[in-house]
Write a structure and sequence with these properties.
Chain B: It comes from Marinomonas ushuaiensis DSM 15871. The complex is a heterotrimer of chains A (220), B (257) and C (225). Chain A is mainly alpha-helical. Chain A has helices spanning 3-41, 44-59, 62-72, 82-107, 111-119, 124-154, 166-177, 180-209. Chain A is 79% helix and 0% strand. Chain C is an all-alpha fold and 225 residues long. The structure holds adenosine-5'-diphosphate and magnesium ion.
Chain lengths: 220, 257, 225
């Protein structure tokens, strides 16, 4: 096979990979925020549910979660297509790690900020969303960036439930053409490029969000 | 005498096993300026933080303007205050912190306008006009659009004062507002307070280690030790003729007399 | 499909088989960790090399390994290395892949651990005229190890949880075993759930173990013989 042909097939796979990331990432972020906030502020029974979700998805491995959702749920009468299984499994998995990012970032906002917002008589909701969260968000960006890269890497697992992502395309090309060196070399480079692009955007986002927080010590 | 604006009755406060106040009684009259001095760890900050509802109490009552701070009437009985009651009571109070606690993600102007707009529902125009006046008062009119992290410590604290004043509290709590500052920046902050009390009457409760300032500004000085008022009186009396040994020792150490 | 009840008899039948496959999983994790720690140290020390070229290239190698999927790295080693005349069994491939991947992560842990040693310690070692090797062996590592335990432990647990990917190159570890059992019996519920529970139990145990290890570890460091 021509090198150009190989690359073009692989690029098709890369598009699928990006699609999965684009769907799983929002799910992960929603899970991270909702369960991170529940874990911090909700009453005991809800907290327990959040802890169960977090421990379960962090304690077992992503591939097993993917298989469970794809192969086991049909036994419960819930049949979902491979793509949905992939997005749900990866979104919930990365989301569970994200809860700890959200929690850690909120807790790292200096206590004085919370106290000043009480002294100014903001309501609990205003304190969280107007004072604490904008500062916590800045702290969240770098670890969320790392998680996003973990997500890109984890999408390769979906090739094992027959989704035609970048890794799947590579594996099937390798099985048929035997040009394994070029194929896997290109694939590694493509993943690397995706991760670097992601990192670039994250860095820019961090810069924009940290306006005013720049030289911040705790004594603001 | 009228009802005191602040009244502590048999207040008890513990941190776990440590008892800070065992049976604390204290009154402040309206428009009175009271300085609290005393060794560190004696409970001065805790006193202000209880008033600002940053710490709860374990016994007794506190009245603010004749109404209980930490309790509310419910079906004819006093029960622990809920959030709504605390929200109402906090309207009386404003606080300036030792470490400023400005919001680093907001400009100076927004630090000052945010609470009046969001909490009191004042229009943006009105809040901004008032912020400009306050910035003028603290001498920072040109810093409205700066971020806190671009200001010096003294400037930050002056914004802190303006931010607290913007909520028009009837009681102002100042907790060692110059302790975190380099010595040469202390006076620019104290001058703001001096001007403030010259122009308007305030009930002010301030914890300070600046003895000359306490002497000059206060109506009454309280010397605090181990969670109790050891001695109190007119500044002249406390600073020139302290009666208690502990007060003398403390003042000697501080003033090097 | 009437398979949504939990079949205890089937589970008990499957359990010992999965348990025997757990040995393979644990072996891969153990060997992978050892290799990862070695690679991590190598990368970390190379990042302190006096040559800027070496420092920079190692930085990019580590960055590359960290930002590409383990699964693809496994495939790369398994399918591409034979082209260079290096054929490895699934287990050996797995150990190398896990070791390289997590070695890259660990190098950052080790690097910041070594950077955490005060400058005075290095200067003292120099004043005593210790060789570079002795400085690391006797002065730096004994002090650096304790603070590195939690992060290192977490990465080893993370590695453990990625071992199921070795099923993709037919290593007969827990997940691969569960898949085979599942497809033979047309029942995935019990085998997959069992594997999930095994991972949960093992990682909780490991987290507890690491915590204990850190607590027991002498604060003043220890001497490497
Ligand atoms: N949140 C807290 N938890 C436990 N102990 C506290 C807390 N806040 C203050 N304390 C203790 O209460 C005592 C009084 O503290 P504080 O009111 O800050 O003293 P001051 O302001 O006079 O220096 C100190 O011994 C301090 O250690
Ligand atoms: Mg204090």
């Amino acid at each position: 096979m021509e090198f150009g042909e190989i690359v073009s097939v692989l690029l098709q796979g890369a598009v699928v990979t990006i699609e999965i990331v684009a769907m799983a990432l929002p799910l992960a972020i929603i899970m991270a925020f909702s369960f991170g906030l529940i874990r911090l502020y909700a009453s005991a029974p809800f907290k327990q549910i959040a802890i169960f979700y977090i421990e379960f998805f962090r304690g077992t491995s992503a591939l097993i979660q993917l298989y469970w959702i794809y192969f086991v749920l049909p036994f419960f009468g819930i049949t979902i297509d491979a793509m949905t299984a992939a997005v749900v499994a990866l979104g919930l998995n990365i989301g569970a790690y994200g809860t700890e990012v959200v929690r850690g970032a909120i807790q790292s906002v200096p206590k004085g900020q919370f106290e000043a917002s009480i002294a100014l008589n903001f309501t609990a909701t205003q304190r969280l969303w107007r004072i604490i969260m904008p500062q916590a968000l800045v702290n969240m960006i770098p670890p969320f960036g790392n998680l996003a890269i973990e997500l890109v890497k984890a999408t390769s697992l979906v090739s094992l439930i027959t989704i035609g992502d970048l890794t799947f395309k590579a594996k099937s090309l390798a099985d048929t053409t035997l040009q394994v060196g070029e194929i896997f070399g290109v694939v590694l480079v493509l993943y690397f490029v995706m991760a670097q692009c992601l990192m670039f955007f994250i860095k820019r986002l961090e810069k924009r969000l940290s306006k005013g927080l720049g030289r911040g010590g705790i004594h603001s | 005498m009228s009802t005191p604006i602040i009244e502590f009755k048999n207040v008890k406060k513990c941190f776990g096993e440590t008892v800070i106040f065992s049976d604390f009684n204290f009154k402040v009259e309206e428009n009175e300026i009271v300085s609290i001095i005393g060794p560190s760890g004696s409970g001065k900050s805790t006193l202000l933080r209880i008033l600002m509802t940053l710490e709860g109490i374990d016994g007794g009552y506190i009245n603010i303007a004749g109404e209980s701070l930490w309790h509310m009437l419910w079906q004819g009985q006093y029960v622990p205050a809920n959030n709504k009651h605390l929200h109402k009571m906090r309207n009386h109070l404003g606080m300036v912190f030792q470490h400023f606690n400005l919001f680093p993600h907001m400009t100076v102007k927004r630090n000052i306008t945010e609470a009046p707009m969001r909490v009191k529902g004042i229009s943006r125009e009105e809040a901004e006009a008032s912020a400009e006046r306050l910035l003028q008062l603290v001498g920072l009119a040109d810093k409205a659009d700066s971020y806190p992290n671009d200001l010096s410590g003294g400037q930050k604290q002056r914004v802190g004062i303006a931010r607290a004043l913007a909520m028009k509290p009837s009681i102002l709590l100042l907790d060692e507002i110059t302790s975190a500052l380099d010595p040469e920046l202390v006076d620019e902050v104290l001058d703001v307070i001096r001007n403030l009390v010259k122009e308007e009457s305030f009930t002010m409760l301030l914890v300070t280690h600046e003895m000359y300032f306490a002497r000059e500004i206060s109506d009454r000085v309280c010397f605090f030790d181990k969670g109790a008022i050891v001695e109190e009186g007119k500044p002249e009396a406390i600073f020139t003729q302290p009666q208690e040994e502990r007060t003398k020792a403390f003042l000697n150490a501080y003033l090097g007399q | 499909m009437n398979g949504f009840h939990w079949d205890w008899a089937f589970m008990w039948e499957v359990f010992p088989i999965i348990l025997s496959a757990a040995k393979v999983t644990l072996l891969a994790t153990l060997l992978g960790s050892i290799f990862a720690i070695v690679m991590g140290l190598v990368f970390a020390l190379l990042r302190r090399n006096s040559s800027k070229t070496i420092r920079l290239s190692v930085y990019w190698v580590v960055e590359f390994i960290r930002s590409t999927p383990l699964l693809v790295q496994i495939f790369f080693l398994y399918y591409v290395m034979p082209e260079f005349g290096i054929s490895m069994s699934p287990l050996v491939t797995g150990v190398f892949a896990l070791g390289l991947h997590y070695g890259a992560y660990l190098s950052e842990v080790f690097r910041s651990g070594i950077d955490g040693i005060e400058k005075g310690q290095w200067e003292a070692a120099r004043a005593l005229n210790l060789s570079k090797l002795d400085t690391y062996k006797d002065i730096v590592l004994p002090q650096a190890i304790r603070p590195m335990i939690p992060a290192t432990g977490n990465y080893i647990i993370a590695m453990f949880k990625e071992t199921p990917q070795l099923s993709a190159i037919t290593l007969l570890e827990m997940l691969q075993m569960a898949k085979i059992i599942g497809s033979e019996n047309f029942r995935y519920l019990e085998p997959f759930t069992l594997v999930g529970v095994m991972y949960l139990v093992f990682s909780l145990l490991a987290a507890f173990g690491i915590h204990q290890l850190e607590r027991r570890f002498p604060k003043e460091g220890f001497s490497l013989k």
